[in-house]
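hey m, so remember when u said the tokens were messed up on ur end? i reran from scratch. heres the input so u can diff it against urs
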Amino acid sequence: KSKEFLDKFCSTVVAIYSILFVISWIIYAIVSGSIVVKGSIILIPIFGYEMVIQYVYLVESPKKRHISQIISYTIETLLLLFFWLFLKPNNYLMLLGLSTSIILKSIMATKGLKFKLDFRLCDFKYVLMLVKFGFLPMIALLLSMLNSRIDVLMLNMYESVSKAQIGIYSVGISLADKVLLIPEAIREILLGKLVAGKQKEEVARACRMGSAIAFAISVFIMIFGKFVIAILYGSDYSDAYSITFISSIGTIFMVYIKMVT
């Protein structure tokens, strides 16, 4: 039954995102815009598929999933380092850098799950059930993602705030967000353990571990943040350090929210 459910669910997911991928190409051909806009339209269904299939992979094979994450992020880092050292930045490289890890994780998760792809298993009523079940969580996720970037959107509405100032603010916030990288990785491992039937005490232990790690990273960023910004972004963004310093303090207390949601 478990294998049958996996085959049916994954086949349905592949079918839905294949249709969305075709639609994205149609929109790509119709819409006029920059390469960033048109490239983003193509990548949307790929990003969506990666998110869904990765959660399934996390439940079915947590260890293999974490290994695939490490491999894909390592390749992405090496590729971005190559771009940074030897090539001139442009929009094409930006899209390639953003999509590399997503595509690799999608491929490895699809192969790792070893499900039987059979579109005959797709059922319209089953799709409606999935839509009904996932609609409210989708809205909640969209609002959550919007909430995390609403500050930049609001700043962009004021004519008194220049694009350069928004860029400096964004750099400061993005560096402070790195405090949550390791706690988020611990959260994913925790989810795999809970699904496997581990005790709920794992949550408390993971929160304590995540808080300690977040505190250590936050202190490191507050002390060496100015040097990190200068190395990664250049001296033009040195004003972002004050934003990073203040935001890093508040980010520590977001660990508990990240771990339990």
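this time it looks ok to me. The chain has a mean pLDDT of 83. if urs says something different then somethings off w ur setup not the seq
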